[in-house]
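Need the bound structure for zinc ion, inputs here:
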Amino acid sequence: MLFTRKTLATHLVFLLLFAFLFWWGCPFNRLFGFTCPGCGLSRAWISFLRGDWRLAFKSHLLFLPAPVVVFLFAHRDTLFRRCQKTMDCIFIFFAVLLAAYHLLRG
Ligand SMILES: [Zn+2]
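Answer from helper R.:
Posting the output first, comments after.
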């Protein structure tokens, strides 16, 4: 069985931790005082869900693939353990893309 109680509980704990961490804004920005490569993702998703695609892409260009990459990363040792090298390539590619975007947007 793919979803056991432990799996569901783990997912729930991670979702709650994530929500708690980002409730008052970016924790990285709060700690160090400058933006991180992920800053703007929440704003982008909120804009996207409200139907404002322009503001969503303006807030963060990579907001669409970001949750997919997070999902892949979180499940790399379970759902995708047979293709770890491919997963690693995807993560490295996305990290480079995210860093480049962060540097370019300033
Ligand atoms: Zn941030």
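Comments: Residues 5-105 form one domain. The longest helix spans residues 84-105.
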